[in-house]
Write a structure and sequence with these properties.
The chain has three domains: 5-102, 2,3-Dihydroxybiphenyl 1,2-Dioxygenase, domain 1 (Roll), CATH 3.10.180; 117-260, Jelly Rolls, CATH 2.60.120; 262-362, Jelly Rolls, CATH 2.60.120.10. A hairpin with a 2-residue loop joins strand 21 (249-250) and strand 22 (253-254). It starts with 7 loop residues before the first strand and ends in a 12-residue tail after the last strand. It contains two helices and 33 strands. By secondary structure, it is mostly beta strands. The longest helix has 11 residues, at 20-30.
Length: 374
């Protein structure tokens, strides 16, 4: 044990919770604990909280047991520095289980899978409760094998948002304001600002930020990779930070605030369409691209092709879109419907004259491999 001691950074007591939401409300509301980490944001199953000299890891557990579970003590360590022969699971006298876990494990990126996904706007039953009082609509229920998550998020009532300074351990994350507005603040990016309908931000990995306020009926589209990722609180950092560093890189990515009102339209990769590019492709060094696409001069337009990337997501903002795809059929999308087109599958897109759609791709630019008939 003497070889382990220098590498221990934090201890957590694990508490299984048949009702995680109620347990979290009790510890934070009644006892004054603070949230340090929560995952996933749309339907939390794990939360780490601290207060009064102790750190607890709350994990959702289904059902109840007749016999109490043994106490589990998690010791967060410098994993790479531990001697190779160190046992990671120990049993203390009395039966307490001790687990040695890496304090900063590498980001796990599932291999994922390619499939056609279609999500139509449904009724209230499609919305679930998530972090900080937000409501979530899952746009990719299967999560493409755990690689991607897309959420339609809303805050029905306006006013201050019960958020805190936090960051996400993630590969890619963007937010597009669908309706209303929200006031946000980001680490080293200046004073709080309004994200209004049509605007978009790139949240680089681990950039500290906070949602301060929302208009009544705020709605945003959020896309992240991987689907399940950790959200950590940073109670020590106050925002805004004193320094303005717009070119700062966070894990190789630069923060982007795209303002729709001042954007310009440029040709899209298919004739008959144009796009306003958000600049996220450049800021992520080609990892991801985010654009709003519409027909040129308000005339119906058609695009064909396929893509060779890992992700292609289309969300209808206005108008109508007819989607044909090999092996999946012919579908009509209206406002707030969306789809994922799999790699290597031929598709055809027919847009109405008033079409506007949000396109998110990984990598940033996905020229058609060819233009087949569908």
């Amino acid at each position: 044990m003497t070889d382990i001691q220098p590498h221990i950074r934090l201890a957590q007591v694990l508490l299984p919770c048949p009702d995680l939401a109620a347990t979290l409300r009790f510890f934070t509301g009644e006892l004054g604990f603070k949230v340090n980490m929560i995952q996933p944001a749309d339907s939390p199953s794990v939360a780490v909280i601290s207060g009064h000299g102790v750190t607890l890891r709350l994990e959702a557990a289904k059902g109840t047991e007749t016999e109490p579970s043994p106490l589990v003590l998690r010791l967060l360590c410098d994993g790479v520095a531990l001697p190779a022969e160190t046992a990671r699971h120990l049993i203390a006298p009395g039966g307490t289980r001790v687990e040695l876990v890496d304090a900063r494990p590498p980001l796990e990126l599932p291999e994922g899978r390619q499939e056609f996904v279609l999500a139509h706007l449904a009724g209230e039953e499609a919305w679930g409760k998530g972090r900080a009082g937000m409501q979530y609509r899952d746009l990719i229920p299967g999560r493409l094998g755990g690689r991607f998550i897309a959420s339609h998020i809303r805050i029905p009532e306006g006013g201050p948002v019960p958020d805190y300074v936090h960051f996400h351990k993630i590969r890619f994350q963007m937010i597009y304001c669908r309706r209303g507005w929200t006031r946000l603040v980001y680490q080293d990016q200046g004073e709080p600002f309004l994200l209004e309908a049509g605007d978009c931000v790139l949240q680089p990995p681990e950039i500290r930020h906070r949602v301060l306020e929302a208009s009544p009926g705020l709605e945003v589209i959020e896309i992240g990779c991987p689907a399940v990722h950790e959200t950590f609180a940073d109670h020590a950092l106050a925002l805004p930070t004193p320094h303005l560093l717009p070119e700062r890189r966070f894990e190789g990515q630069r923060f982007v605030r795209h303002v729709a009102a001042s954007a310009r339209w440029i040709p899209w990769r298919s004739k008959g369409f144009e796009a306003r590019d958000t600049g996220i492709g450049e800021a992520t060094e080609g990892l991801a691209g985010v654009r709003v696409v519409r027909p040129v001069a308000g005339k119906p337009a058609r695009a064909t092709g396929n893509h060779g990337g890992e992700f292609m997501f289309l969300y209808l903002l206005e108008g109508a879109l007819q989607v044909q795809s090999q092996g999946t059929g012919d579908y009509r999308l209206g406002a707030d419907d969306c789809c994922v087109l799999p790699r290597g599958v031929a598709y055809a897109l027919e847009g109405s004259s008033d079409l506007e759609m949000l396109e998110v791709t990984l990598p940033a630019d996905l020229p058609p491999a060819h233009s087949p008939s569908v």
